[in-house]
Design goal:
- By secondary structure, this protein is an alpha/beta fold.
- 36% of the residues lie in helices and 26% in strands.
- The protein has helices spanning 2-14, 46-59, 115-125, 142-156, 188-197, 211-222, 236-245, 250-256, 283-292, 300-309, 315-318; strands spanning 19-22, 29-34, 37-43, 71-77, 80-88, 93-99, 130-135, 161-165, 176-179, 202-205, 226-231, 257-266, 275-282.
- Strands 9-8-10-11-7-12-13 form a seven-stranded mixed β-sheet, sandwiched between helices. Strands 3-2-1-6-5-4 form a six-stranded antiparallel β-sheet, with helices on one face.
- The longest helix is centred in the middle third of the chain and has 15 residues, at 142-156.
- The model has no long low-confidence stretch (mean pLDDT 88).
Length: 323
């Protein structure tokens, strides 16, 4: 099936897709996410389609002994990297294949177009300790931004960098990257104990998903490390609420939070690559929000309206994101 898969990926690259969706093993239509939208890509013969799904499950090391549990896997092929999300139902299965490194690499220098924003982001990355959270909806480029941050820190600072990921999505030379593998007793807690013994300055936790990973991020931040991570939320304020719901108390949040960065991708008809916009709440903004409930930083709606005024995007392109 490798040849068929290569043909499929070649077509996905030509179409500039970011994800491929296999929504049912009984309906042989492959859909793709292109410029933020899900559109049909290719219909196959049912037998070939099911073999292709089985090939992806095998390559991503999905454990079919636990076929009724949601799972995430990753694999590579000829210097291309993929993440596979496996979601079962009672009689069916849904797969989403993320194409991780098939487009021009995003660097810190081309994260957004506003100099003041990049200056603010650079200032956050100079912090010696604390927690920086990048948040946004699915497909908003959170992981890409996080990895651009890692590259920037590695390039400009003499620091020891490590990552804890599930799975590893983008590989970096010179950075120690550890993949969670609970089947081999390599869970978050075990990794944490080893990470602390290796004296890192900066630790990236791919995503805070539950109370356990939130507690690990807190512990690392409180012990003098700079922690970079992501959350699936729709605003900086929403990230605060989510962190509280995951068991982090207000006093700890006031101490460790250095910044929450909410981002949006906006696709324009004028260019193939999306615009990236940021809502940035720095530590003092977050303390004010936590203590008095006051917002002192530009919300995403204000950022987008300014971009319309400056002619960066049109109202029609950002209308769905304006409150």
């Amino acid at each position: 099936m490798e040849k068929e898969f290569e043909l499929l990926i070649t077509e996905a690259l030509r179409q500039k897709a970011t994800d491929l969706h296999f929504k049912s093993k009984f309906k042989p239509l492959i859909e793709m996410r292109k410029k933020g939208e899900i559109v049909p890509m290719k219909e196959l013969a049912l037998e070939l389609y099911q073999k292709l799904m089985a090939y992806l499950i095998y390559r991503a090391n999905i454990d079919l002994n636990h076929h009724l549990q949601p799972q995430t896997g990753a694999f590579s092929l000829k210097n291309h990297y993929f993440r596979l999300s496996y979601l079962p139902s009672q009689h069916d299965v849904h797969l989403v294949l993320r194409l991780l490194n098939h487009h021009q690499k995003i660097t810190f220098a081309n994260l957004g177009e506003d100099k003041a924003t990049k200056s603010q982001l650079a200032k956050l990355l100079k912090k010696d300790n604390g927690l920086i959270v990048v948040c946004g909806p699915t497909g908003s480029g959170k992981s890409t931004t996080l990895h651009a941050f890692l590259d920037e820190i590695a390039k400009t600072d003499k620091k020891s960098l490590m990552t804890i990921e599930d799975p590893i999505e983008i590989y970096h030379e010179g950075i120690v990257q550890i993949q969670v593998n609970e089947q081999n007793q390599l869970d978050f807690a075990t990794i944490l104990n080893q990470v602390l013994r290796h004296d890192p300055d900066v630790v990236m936790i791919g995503e805070i998903r539950d109370e356990r990973s939130a507690g690990i991020a807190l512990r690392l931040a409180l012990t003098g490390h700079l922690i970079l991570t992501t959350l699936h939320t729709y605003s900086a304020k929403g990230a605060l609420i989510r962190l509280e719901n995951l068991g982090l108390n207000l006093d700890d949040l006031k101490e460790i939070l250095k910044g929450i960065i909410f981002q949006r991708l906006v696709y324009s008809k004028e260019q193939s690559d999306p615009h990236v916009f940021f809502e940035i709440a720095a530590s003092q903004d977050l303390k004010t929000l936590l203590e008095r409930g006051e917002v002192t930083y530009p919300l995403m709606s204000e950022v987008l309206n300014n971009s319309i005024t400056q002619g960066v995007v049109t109202y029609e392109e950002v209308e769905a994101y304006l409150d």
